[in-house]
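Teaching assistant here, posting this on the class forum so everyone can see the example we discussed in section. The complex has two components, and the goal was to see what a joint structure prediction looks like when all of them are supplied at once.
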Amino acid sequence: MSKPTWLHENFEHTGSAFGLRVTRKLDEVQSPFQKIEIWESTDWGKVMLIDGAMMVTTRDNFFYHEMMAHAPLYTHADPKDVVIIGGGDCGTLREVLRHPGVQRAVQCDIDEQVTRMAEKYFPELCESNNDPRATVMFDDGIAYMANAAPESVDVIIVDSTDPVGPAEGLFNRAFYANCLKALRPGGLLVQQSESPLALMDLILDMRRAMQDAGFASFRTLPFPQPCYPTGWWSCTIAAREPRDLTRFREADAEAKPFDTQYYTAAIHRGALAMPPIMAKALGE
Amino acid sequence: MSKPTWLHENFEHTGSAFGLRVTRKLDEVQSPFQKIEIWESTDWGKVMLIDGAMMVTTRDNFFYHEMMAHAPLYTHADPKDVVIIGGGDCGTLREVLRHPGVQRAVQCDIDEQVTRMAEKYFPELCESNNDPRATVMFDDGIAYMANAAPESVDVIIVDSTDPVGPAEGLFNRAFYANCLKALRPGGLLVQQSESPLALMDLILDMRRAMQDAGFASFRTLPFPQPCYPTGWWSCTIAAREPRDLTRFREADAEAKPFDTQYYTAAIHRGALAMPPIMAKALGE
C-alpha cells in the first residue's frame, strides 16, 4: 500500500474545495466523453472522479442516491415507469428498483465506461442491474428524451454531472420540453440542482428553464453531500401540473419495505422545511 | 490584491479535507493558548483559523451559531440565565441575546485574543457584546463551571474547539458534573458534537461522559456546516432531568421575533428526524 496523500478538488465556481486522503489510483480510462479515474481512499472507500470532479465515494453516495430516488418517487402518486438520464454509476437505479410498484426503469447514460467502472469498483451500486424491470442502456439522454413516446413516463430523474461538458444539454428549455412531453399526467421531473448555499443562481436558472418549458410547480430539497461543493446539496422536483410538492405519500414512506441510511419520511418532511436563506434566494 | 491561492485544511481524523480560495492573510497572533489567523477569501468573506483549523467564515457561520443557540433555547421551557463556555467569536452570544426572555448571558472564553480578532474582522458577530444583559469575560471555562453557584443557570452552551488542546477538558465527566450542578431544574447543556457521518465515536464518548456525570436525556441534532469536517455537523443537547428532547416550544419558535438564515421551527423539527445511519450508531 502506498503512503497516503491528499487529493484535493478545488471548486472554482464556489471558491471552496473538498479533499480525501487517498492511497493509490486504482484505474483510469479516457472514454470518448470524459476521463474516469478510480482512487482508493483511507476512510471513504473508493472514489470515482470524472474529468477531475469527485462523483461518488463508497462512504457518502447514499445521501444523494436515496434523495434523488425516494423523494420524487414518494411524491408521485403511483410511479410505474421511471427513466434515469445519466446515473451511470447505477446507484439511483438501485434505489428506484426498491419500490415494488415500479414496473420499468430505464437508465440512459451516454458513457458506457462509467457503468463498467462502477460494476468493477462499486458493485454494490450495480446489484440491481439485472433486475428484470431494469434496462441499462448507453445513449445520448437528450436524444432519448426527444424520441420518447408521449405520455409514457411517470418520473424522470436527471442524475448528471454539472452543466458543463457532456451534461450541458440536460439543463435547458429544449430538453425540459421533451421531458414534459414524455410525462404522463401527474408526472414529475427531478434533477440534481447543486449547492443551495453557493450556487443559487444555477437553481434559479434551472427553474426558469423548466418553467419556460411548461412545468407548473417546483420544489428544491436540500440534503448533505460531503464530496460535492460546500457539502450541502439539493435536488429540484418539477411537476407537469400545478400541485403542492410539499405533499407526498407519507404513510407509504413511513412503511417503506426497504432499508436506507438517510432517507425516511421524517427526513423528507425535514427537507421540505426551506431555510430562510434558500427561500429568500428563490423568492418564495 | 494578491493572486488567489487555495488554503486546504486536511482533517486527519476523518480522512477528508476542506478548502477555501484565499487572497491574503490579514492578521496573525500567537496568544498564550493558540495561534489565531485571519484570511481573506474570494467567496466566503473572512476566515478565522485557530491552530490551523477553520473556525468561522463570514459566509457559513450562521448554520452553527443559530443551531447552537436557538435549538436549546427553544427546547428549554423558559431560559433566563445562559452561560456560553468558549464562543469567543461572539456569534453564539449574539444569537442567544435575540431571545427577549434571556435576562443574563455570560460568555467565558479562555482566550481574549479570539474576541479581539472577532471584533476587528467579524464585527457583525460582536454587535450584541454591549447588550446590558451580556457579560463577556476571559477565563478558564472549566474553573468557571466548577465555581458556578449551584442551580443558577438555565442553559449552558459549550461552544469550543475540538477535544484536543485547550478544549480537551470540556469533554469529560468532571466538567459535565460541574455543569449539572450549576443547572436549575429543567436545565439543559448543549455542546457541538462533531460530524455525525465520520465522528460518531466521539459523539458516543461524549454522551457516555454526560450520562456518567448524571445527565438524564440526550438528543443529537445534525445540520450543515460546510467549513467543518465532512460539512455535516451536529450539536448534542443533554437534559438535567429525564424528558423528551424532541419536544420544544414550537409555537414560540414559529413566532420568533428575529430573523435567521437557517433556523426555523420547521428546520428544528427536521433536525429531530434522525437518519438511520445516526440512529443505528447511537443505538436508538
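For the discussion questions: The mean pLDDT of chain B is 96. Chain B touches chain A through 43 residues (CB under 8 Å). Think about how each of these relates to the inputs above.
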